[in-house]
Amino acid sequence: QVQVVESGGGLVQAGGSLRLSCVASGRTFTLYAMAWFRQAPGKEREFVGVFRWSTGSADIADSVKGRFAISGDNTKSKVILQMNDLKPEDTAVYYCAANSAMGRGYDAWGQGTQVTVSS
Predict the structure, then answer these.
(1) What is the distance, to the nearest Å, from the Cα of residue 45 to the centroid of all Cα atoms in its chain?
(2) 45, 69, 78, 119: which one has the fewest Cβ atoms less than 10 Å from its Cβ?
(3) What is the pLDDT of residue 87?
(4) Which helix (H) or strand (E) holds 47?
(5) Which residue has the higher pLDDT, 60 or 28?
(6) What is the mean pLDDT of residues 69-96?
(7) CA atoms of 84 and 81, how far apart (whole Å)
(8) How far apart are CA 110 and CA 74, in angstroms?
(9) What is the per-residue pLDDT across 19-55, written as a single tens digit (0 to 9) for each?
(10) Terminus-to-terminus CA distance in the chain, angstroms?
């Protein structure tokens, strides 16, 4: 059983930055990946990026590539989503999800943290 908790959301003006954190707890010894998704009102959930613990590799969605970056802290089972040059279209609830073991889907979701970018 894995649980994740997000933090770091808030209100920021366009061009600003925010740093979101996601911490996994519980049965983390087989933790495979942790990903960020976002969902804006009236829109479907969108993949933002993923960090894979086994390789230390990260993938970022094209829509935010160059502005967002993902990093991991293995000791703390924590993934950071660094968001720079924020745009109003980045406004959404950002969710962290954990793939608790290889072969599973994202089976642990956080409650989300609101990111609002004003123009």
Answers:
(1) 12
(2) 119
(3) 97
(4) strand 46-52
(5) 60
(6) 94
(7) 10
(8) 19
(9) 999 999 998 888 999 999 999 999 999 999 999 998 9
(10) 40
What pLDDT is attached to residue 108?
95
**Taking Cα atoms as reference points, which of 95, 77, 74 lies closest to residue 6?**
95
- Residue in the structure block whose two tokens are 């086994």: 54
Strand partners, 36: 49, 96
All residues at 6 or more sequence positions from 32 whose CB lies less than 8 Å from its CB, including other chains: 52, 53, 54, 99, 100, 101, 102, 104
| Residue 70 phi, psi (nearest 5) | -120, 135
CA dist., res. 63 & res. 53, Å (int): 23
Give the number of other Cβ atoms within 10 Å of residue 75's Cβ: 6
Residues in contact with 81: Cβ distance below 8 Å, sequence separation at least 6, in sequence order: 19, 20, 21, 22, 36, 48, 49, 68, 69, 70, 94
